[in-house]
Amino acid sequence: MFVVTGVTGHTGKVVAETLLAQRESVRVVVRDAKQGESWKARGAEVAVASLGDASAIAQALTGVMGAYLLVPPRYDVDGMLAAQRPVIDALAEAVRKSGVPHVVLLSSLGAELSEGTGPIRTLHHAERTLGGAAKNITFLRAAYFIENYAAVLGATAGGVLPTFLTVDKGIPVIATADIGRVAAELLLDPANGTRVVELTTAQRYSPADVARALSSVLGRTITPQFAPNEAVVPALISMGFMPGIAELFREMTAGINDGRIGPQGGNVVRRFGQLTPIDVLKPLLESAATTAHA
Fold this sequence. Notes:
Elements: E1 2-4, H1 10-21, E2 26-30, H2 37-41, E3 45-48, H3 54-61, E4 66-69, H4 80-98, E5 103-108, H5 121-131, E6 137-142, E7 144-145, E8 160-163, E9 173-174, H6 176-188, E10 194-200, H7 207-218, E11 223-226, H8 232-238, H9 243-257, E12 269-272, H10 277-292
Parallel strand pairs: 1-2, 1-4, 2-3, 4-5, 5-6, 6-10, 7-9, 8-11, 10-12
Helix pairs in contact: 1-6, 3-4, 4-5, 7-10, 8-9
């Protein structure tokens, strides 16, 4: 049996679906019993627990072959990094107490760095903390989520694609569905000790590349609209983000643009996703169009 957290989100859902499709036994962890009803109907066991409850998570992890763990973002507090540390510490305690033989932890490119990476600093702490608690662990370091572009797709109605990323610089990206698929594969092929897996698309994509792809789908020209790094914080605050969180994203964006956040190389496993930006964004555009005409 495998434990999967985050099944109400994008990656955990795909992990659980992939394992169930292969007739593996799955136990999903949800915060509310109602969230688990659909999974129970599909044959999964359901454990109701908060990720910050070490005892409840340890119980969920006991007697299983492996677990997919993640650290949920916290946008409801200004001090996101401080708020996530107790969850990470609780997960580590649960892993240690349960003796789960293998953990796949959703991490990020740049998690090897202790500073200058914005919200990825949380995952640096998570890798160090859970790495010291697990018998065997895989750090699944994912690239920039293609789904991050979804937040600005509405602007394509005006012919632009707003971005804080350097317009013509290709960066590693990945679809969340590919993260879930690869995480399931890694659970079925456990690490011996500590394994670092970098997950990206085979090709790098720039905002200009994404804009050209969107232009082909929409049948009209979409132009990247660049805003400099100093515009990140005021723009995000205007969208409702707290100042501390906005500053973290400014720091991360700067790290991506200057190349600090990217594949580490060296003694890591390279894996590649199957989905391109257009595979991910075209259905989102079609869904938005359907909703607008409903």
